[in-house]
Amino acid sequence: MEFEFWWLLALPLFFSLGWLAARVDLKQLLAESTALPAAYFKGLNFLITNQHDKAIEAFTEAVQANTDSLELHFALGSLFRKRGEVDRAIHLHLNLLAKKELEPQQKLAVTAELAQDYLKAGLLDRAEELFESLNDDRYRQPALRALLEIYVREREWERAIKAATELERLSGVPFRVEISHYYCEMAVKSKLENDTHTARFELDLALNANKNCVRANVLLGDLEAETNDHKTAISTWKRIEFQKPEYLGLIAPKLLASYRALNQTAEGLSLLKTYLQTYQLSALVNVLYEATLAEEGAASAATLARNELIKMPSLNTLDQLLQARAIVETSQPQNANLQDTQLMQQAVRHAIGNKTAYYCEQCGFKAKYHHWQCPACNAWETLPAEPTTV
Predict the structure, then answer these.
(1) Which of 89, 133, 138 is nearest to 114 (CA)?
(2) Collapsing DSSP states into helix, strand and coil, what is residue 181?
(3) pLDDT above 60: residue 121
């Protein structure tokens, strides 16, 4: 390929065009930066250094200097919400909406901000009305997420299912777990109203939404046990092993109660022992210990606790072993070891204290009892099946 000399003549031209373009971009950048009030940059600096009160003052000054900038208003409104000054954010955005010169897209943007203000303030009816009006594609997903939060807080489960289903379709993010719990909540309500037929139907819908919904099978088993169909109740609860076996400890007392109702206590104990051997769940140890103590006596309970203590050291199991041994020694006249055993049990119980709790995996909320929904962050199934000791 021969070298084309005319390229030498074109190079200066290309260089000149590039230099000119750079100059134009630089001028535009400088023009835009000088158009922003100095208070804006002061506000940014205060934000970076976490001086939010001073940032609010700076952005307020910037808004007063440039009343036409929506971005500055939104930044100030967001700061108000973050600081808990929601009334000021609402006032700011209402004033913006009152401006007749706003274009339709700008009105939508301000409406979205005002809806967030109302949600933060707990004015759910007003927030819901505004979020429902945001049908533009750009705002639809955030609006649906906010509406879903509102419906859950107001316990409007049918609307929550509808919103979650649409959000799942638009975002591609699955909401199967949440939807199954919405159906479970509906079933709980139906059960309280003595409508067991509807409750069963809703629990079936929960399992259709999420085949691993343990809560649905727990509630279905409860319904059967309450009608004295203990055989079906046991069969229903057994399904949990094939869903999430870590939850077997939650239904172990229920299982044993139904086996007792059928006069099959030994079979129930045998099943729980099999579960314990397979899954090594501390909740199963507790249920088995209490049942063995009641059915077979303190000596058998002590043997069970000792065997479990060898396999899985635990202060709780040690407490059970000492308790069982104390009961055995109480029945033996003038047993010299009784006082020592009781002292050791007191020391162990003092060490255990009240340190067992359920901790939300999402927000760290500490709960004394298991919850399907975290009371703090409202997330579903974020509390473990078994409590932890700290």
Answers:
(1) 89
(2) helix
(3) yes
* Each residue's pLDDT tens digit, 178-234: 999 999 999 999 999 999 999 999 999 999 999 999 999 999 999 999 999 999 999
Q: Show the domains of the chain with their CATH numbers.
A: 36-134 (1.25.40.10), 354-390 (2.20.28)
Name the nearest CA neighbour of 303 among 320, 286, 316, 282.
320
State whether residue 211 is helix, strand or coil: coil
Q: Do residues 233 and 258 make contact, with C-beta atoms less than 8 angstroms apart?
A: yes
| β-strand partners of 366 | 359
Q: How far apart are CA 89 and CA 79, in angstroms?
A: 8
Distance of CA 251 to the CA centre of its chain: 22
The conformation of residue 244, written as its DSSP 8-state character, comes to -
Question: Which tokens belong to 79?
Answer: 């700061």
Q: Contact at 8 Å (CB) between 344 and 322?
A: yes
Distance CA 223, CA 217 (A): 10
Backbone angles phi, psi at 373, to 5 degrees: -120, 130
Taking the C-alpha atoms of residue 372 and residue 358, their distance in angstroms, rounded to an integer, is 11
DSSP count for the chain of H helices, then E strands? 20, 3
Average pLDDT, the chain: 82
